[in-house]
C-alpha cells in the first residue's frame, strides 16, 4: 500500500484566491494547446496554494511551509466553484486536436476533476476519521518533511505547528456537523483512531514524532520554542481530539461498516470506486470481475498444492502452507531481517527487467510506536528527495501469523519491483508539475500487484510456498469490498471470506475489514489495475510476437508517470502500433 502525505488524504481542496501564490509554470510544448497549459498551471497552483504540504509528496516547490489545509465549509464551497469552472474550461477543449503529450495531460485533469466532482456526494469532510490515512498520520509525516535549514524556514515551522490545534478543532467541528446530518465513520474504525491519537498525545515530548523539526536543527532558541509549541499547544489539542472521539463521537458512530449506512451511501461508494480505480464500473461489475479472477487463481493454487501436498482441497492446502515449520517466523526481529533480505534479493534480480533503474535507496523499518497494534497496514512512504531513502514500513508486530511467503510478497509489492521501483523511477522522468501532483490508486497499486507476478517470473522468491500464497489473496478485495459496503455482506461473512486465503489470522482479518470500512473502494484498486496491466502485456505479446521486449513494455507502462487506466491503455496501444510500424 502507498501512503500519501497530506493533512487529509481523502480530499484535496484548493480555494479561490490562492492560485497566484504557488507552483512552477506548466509551459505548453511547441505546438501544444495554450489553454490546456494555462488550465494545468492553474490546477497545480490551486492545489499547492491550498495545501503547501503536497510539495512533500510531489517534489514541487512549496509556496510556503507555514500553513495547513483549510477544511472549513467556506473553503470547501469556494473550491467546488473553482473546480466547476476548471472542468467547464477543460470540456471546451477538443481532445481530438491534442498532441500525445497534451492528451495525457488532458486525461489527468479530466479524471481528477470529474472524479472529485462525483465524490462530493460522500461529504467525506464530515466523517473522515481514519486509522489508515487520517490527518494524524499525515501530520507525523509532515513533521519529518518540515524544512528547518534557514531562519525563515524555522519561523514558518513555528507558525505551522502553532496553528495545528486550530486545524484539529476544525476537524472536530466538521465531525459535529456530520453527526447532525447522520454522517459518521464506522465505530470500530474510530476506536482504532483513538488508540493512535492517544499514543501521540501521551508519548514523552522528546520522543514524539512531531519533534523531528527540532531534532534536525542546531538552533537552540528554535529547539526550545518548537518544543514549547508541541508540549503546550499540540499535545493538548491531540488529547482534546482523542477525548472528543472517545466520549462524544464514538457512542454515536455508525455500527455498520459499509458506507451504504451513510446518507447517499450507495452513490458515495460508486464515486469511491471511480476515485480509486479511474473506471466507471458498478459495484456488481467489480465484484463479478473479481470473483472470476479469484476462481482462476484458486484453480492454479489447487494444482500447485496437489503437487506439493497430494490434496486438491484448497482449504487444506492453505492450512498446510501456513503451518509448515519452514514457512513461519520465530520472532519479530526475524521477520524484519527476512524482509530486508527479500528486498535486497529482489533488487539484485530487478535490473534485467527494465531499461534503467532508479538509484534511490529504500529501507525496511518497523512501524513507529504509536502505530503498533492500531490495525494499520504495512506500507511504502515516498521520499521526493532522491538523495534520501524512502521507507517500507512493516507491521512486524503481527509476526506470529505472518509467513515467509507472505513476507516475500509484501516486500516485492512495497519495494522492488513494486512501489519503490515505480515511484522512484517516476522521479527520474521529465514530468510536468501536473503529472507530479497526480495520483490514483489503480495505477500505483495495480503496478505493485503486477510486480508480485513479475517477481515470481524473475525468480525473486525464496520460499517454495510463495507461489501458492501469491494466488490465494489477489482479486478478493474486488469481491469483498463492494460486498461489505453495498452488497449486504456482514462483518462476519467478510472476515470468513478473507480467512479462506490463509493470508490473515483472526487479528489481521479484523484489521483488514476495518481497513475496508475506512477506505471505501480502495481495496478494489489493486487488482483493477493489476489485471489491466497483465491484460495489456498479453495483448502486446500477441500483437508483437517476436518483437515483444518485456523491458520496452515496462518502459511504456512506467515512462509517462501515473495515469488513469484508460490513458494507460491508450499509451500501450500507441506503443504497440509504433513498435509494429518500426518492424515493417
Automatic annotation (TrEMBL):
It comes from the Bacteria. Pfam families: DUF885. Keywords: Signal. Residues 1-27 form the signal peptide. InterPro entries: DUF885 (IPR010281). This is DUF885 domain-containing protein. The lineage of its organism: Bacteria, Pseudomonadati, Pseudomonadota, Alphaproteobacteria, Sphingomonadales.
Amino acid at each position: 500500500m502507498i501512503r500519501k502525505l497530506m493533512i487529509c488524504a481523502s480530499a484535496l481542496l484548493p480555494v479561490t484566491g490562492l492560485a497566484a501564490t504557488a507552483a512552477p509554470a506548466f509551459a505548453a510544448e511547441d505546438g501544444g494547446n495554450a489553454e490546456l497549459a494555462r488550465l494545468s498551471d492553474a490546477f497545480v497552483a490551486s492545489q499547492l496554494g491550498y495545501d503547501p504540504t503536497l510539495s512533500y509528496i510531489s517534489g514541487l516547490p512549496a509556496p510556503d511551509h507555514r500553513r495547513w489545509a483549510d477544511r472549513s465549509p467556506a473553503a470547501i464551497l469556494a473550491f467546488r466553484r473553482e473546480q466547476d469552472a476548471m472542468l467547464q474550461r477543460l470540456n471546451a477543449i477538443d481532445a481530438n486536436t491534442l498532441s500525445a503529450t497534451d492528451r495525457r495531460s488532458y486525461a489527468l485533469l479530466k479524471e481528477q476533476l470529474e472524479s472529485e466532482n462525483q465524490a462530493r456526494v460522500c461529504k467525506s469532510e464530515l466523517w473522515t476519521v481514519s486509522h489508515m490515512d487520517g490527518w494524524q498520520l499525515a501530520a507525523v509525516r509532515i513533521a519529518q518533511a518540515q524544512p528547518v535549514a534557514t531562519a525563515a524556514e524555522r519561523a514558518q515551522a513555528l507558525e505551522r505547528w502553532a496553528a495545528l490545534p486550530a486545524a484539529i478543532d476544525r476537524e472536530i467541528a466538521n465531525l459535529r456537523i456530520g453527526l447532525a446530518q447522520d454522517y459518521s465513520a464506522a465505530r470500530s474504525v474510530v476506536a482504532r483512531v483513538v488508540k493512535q491519537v492517544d499514543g501521540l498525545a501521551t508519548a514523552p515530548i522528546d520522543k514524539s514524532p512531531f519533534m523531528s523539526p527540532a531534532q534536525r536543527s542546531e538552533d537552540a532558541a528554535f529547539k526550545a520554542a518548537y518544543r514549547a509549541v508541541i508540549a503546550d499547544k499540540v499535545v493538548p489539542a491531540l488529547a482534546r481530539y482523542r477525548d472528543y472521539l472517545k466520549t462524544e463521537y464514538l457512542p454515536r458512530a455508525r455500527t455498520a461498516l459499509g458506507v451504504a449506512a451513510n446518507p447517499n451511501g450507495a452513490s458515495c461508494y460508486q464515486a469511491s470506486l471511480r476515485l480509486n480505480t479511474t473506471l466507471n464500473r458498478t459495484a456488481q461489475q467489480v465484484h463479478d470481475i473479481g470473483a472470476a479472477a479469484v476462481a482462476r487463481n484458486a484453480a492454479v493454487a489447487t494444482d500447485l498444492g496437489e503437487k506439493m501436498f497430494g490434496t486438491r482441497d484448497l482449504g487444506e492446502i492453505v492450512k498446510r502452507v501456513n503451518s509448515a515449520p519452514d514457512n513461519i517466523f520465530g520472532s519479530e526481529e526475524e521477520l524484519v531481517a527476512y524482509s530486508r533480505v527479500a528486498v535486497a534479493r529482489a533488487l539484485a534480480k530487478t535490473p534485467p527487467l527494465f531499461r534503467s533503474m532508479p538509484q534511490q535507496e529504500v529501507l525496511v523499518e518497523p512501524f513507529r510506536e504509536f502505530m503498533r497494534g492500531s490495525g494499520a497496514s504495512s506500507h511504502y512512504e515516498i521520499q521526493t528527495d532522491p538523495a534520501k531513502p524512502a521507507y517500507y514500513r512493516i507491521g512486524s508486530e503481527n509476526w506470529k501469523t505472518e509467513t515467509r511467503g507472505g513476507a516475500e510478497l509484501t516486500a516485492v509489492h512495497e519495494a522492488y519491483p513494486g512501489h519503490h521501483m515505480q515511484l522512484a523511477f517516476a522521479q527520474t522522468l521529465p514530468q510536468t508539475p501536473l503529472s507530479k501532483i497526480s495520483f490514483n490508486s489503480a495505477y500505483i497499486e495495480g503496478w505493485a500487484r503486477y510486480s508480485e507476478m513479475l517477481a515470481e517470473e524473475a525468480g525473486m522468491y525464496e520460499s517454495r510456498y510463495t507461489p501458492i500464497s501469491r494466488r490465494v489473496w489477489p482479486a478478493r478485495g474486488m469481491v469483498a469490498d463492494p460486498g461489505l459496503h453495498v452488497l449486504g455482506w456482514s462483518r462476519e461473512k467478510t472476515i470468513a471470506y478473507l480467512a479462506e486465503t490463509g493470508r490473515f489470522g483472526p487479528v489481521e482479518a479484523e484489521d483488514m475489514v476495518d481497513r475496508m470500512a475506512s477506505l471505501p473502494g480502495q481495496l478494489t484498486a489493486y487488482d483493477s489495475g493489476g489485471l489491466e496491466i497483465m491484460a495489456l502485456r498479453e495483448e502486446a505479446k500477441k500483437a508483437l510476437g517476436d518483437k515483444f521486449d518485456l523491458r520496452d513494455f515496462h518502459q511504456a507502462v512506467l515512462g509517462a508517470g501515473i495515469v488513469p487506466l484508460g490513458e494507460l491503455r491508450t499509451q500501450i496501444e500507441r506503443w504497440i502500433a509504433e513498435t509494429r510500424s518500426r518492424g515493417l
